[in-house]
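Much of what follows relies on a compact textual record of a protein's fold. Here is one such record, which you should read through line by line:
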Amino acid sequence: MPHPHEVAPHPLDPLSRVELARAVEIVRAHEESLPSDLFVNVSLEEPRKEELVAGVPGRCARVTLWRQGSRELFEARLDLSQDALVGWELVPGASAPMLVAQVDAALEVARSSSAFVEGLRERGLSESSEIHLEAWPFGGLLPDRFAGRRVVYTPCWERKTPTGNPYAHPIHGLYAVIDLDTLELLEIEEHDSIPVPQEPGDYRADVLEPARHVAPLEITQPQGAGFTAEGHLLRWQNWHMRVGFCPREGLLIHDVRYDDGGTERTIAHRLSMAELVIPYADPSPGSYRKNAFDAGEIFMGINTNSLTLGCDCLGEIHYIDASYVDNLGEVRTIGNAICIHEEDTGILWKHTDTDGSVEVRRGRRFVVSSIYTIDNYEYAYYWYFYQDGGIEFEVKFTGIVLTLADHADQEAIFGTAIQPGLIAPHHQHVFCARLDLDLDGTHNSVYEVDAVAPERGPLNPYGGSFVEKVVQVRDEGESRRYINPATARTWKVVNPQKLNKMGQPVAYKLVPKSPVIPVAEPTSSIGKRAGFMYADTWVTATDSDERYPAGDYPFQSGEGEGLPAWTAQGRSLDSTDVTLWHVFGITHVPRLEDWPIMPVERAGFQLTPFGFFDRNPSLDVPPAQTSHCASSGAGEHGDAHSCACS
């Protein structure tokens, strides 16, 4: 409960440190709880839309617990406004994700195993060697002899110097297989011994001493930031939104609105990255089962970076911390977890008229971002909000490519040889965005839009005409939709009850930018577990209990959960509350240039107003005036130091 002098949290704000601690206390005091239960997740039970409309709902929490002894998963629901536990249920057949407390203990089991140490010795490593170990799930490829267990195995690398890059030195064919719940060492899995690659993969500045000249670049806003932040409420120019956080998905955006000439209009209720799966292509022993669900099995949110001013973010920055409950029930806080700033985007719009008049506007965008490190990879999430009403999501991929060892004279088939004997395997990064749009309310419909040429005839007399073909997605039986670059396909969300000045329903369109076609067969283990990959966009009738496209608990899960099961219900999508699920990502065939650290690669999508406004909504942006620009020399007709854009 908030202190009498504290401002009460908004119903969509993430749980505070105080609320998280109180949730732990309530659960531990409950008669069904055991002291040994591990906390999987403690997060806000987001109020339903009708509750928000009806008034300020109470603050509720959803708590997930894992009971190691009986291998059972429980969900509890708490009403924090009443300090009460109002629901407790067993989730039959569900497995907990990778829990940090268990993973840390499992890695210690591997390190202390005499058999594992002997395997290292046989590969030329001594007891003094520093070994970097990771725990990876078996996924859906669990051998029958381990049925019913939550099992991980331990790929390993050698770190040759205190600051060296361990991924330059993979140790081939040695894995400890461990039960996460009992911490039993089930077996030492060994395959052919291959020499550890010896060339370093240094990238740190204190080792490389980079010498390229880079002129200083400073971002200044003499009057301060152009946005305001009141707790989790953000306002920038015509935009209004709430930023959130959860341990699983990480960054959330809620309640997105736009001030259209004094009228506040709703655009989105909730925006998030609901899942990320990474299927690897190498079929060799120990590699074929690398198919991690980084959101559902690992949890993105708890791996959020604490960001650094001037490095991760540049300019007039506002940070928001994020808190979560660890597996032992302790509240942890990540400082500077979410970065908020605005940045220049170049020309917003421009025209030079025949009378010599020039009108140009500089564009800006509002940026809400966070960065996650999952072992070797970094994922940087950026939500962009533009002055013309557009929204964009971009993920920047960086970090270090995963590596395997192979014989130096062996041709790499399922990866790229980046140094002698060092292979970076092919893989894909497949994201699924959850986009709960509410365009001027919840009565929305979805249409698929293609640019097509009519047959040669009256509508196309010269062979150069094309029209817009618009087909409604009427129910979930039609909800699996696929990209078509040949027709510039997009998907349009409309509100048929709200018309623009031309009598057409107001709309936003989803513009795909980074389609990714799964290489894995649908009948493969990962294909069955991540069935959402096999369409580019899905549409569902909004249900607050349908949150994650591969199901709530994908660790060692079965097939068909999540979107394939939900859409089998066949619910109507006509003028109702709908959610779009957009699948996108990259197919990564590593390059030499990706080593020893990967330059950023990008993927994402756009949400663009399409008749939502009656005209260009950025006409209210004034011409820029700045004293912080200069030219190295004037052109024939130009002023070398003119900076005004009026």
The two ends are 53 Å apart (CA to CA). Confidence is low (pLDDT under 50) at residues 1-5, 638-643.
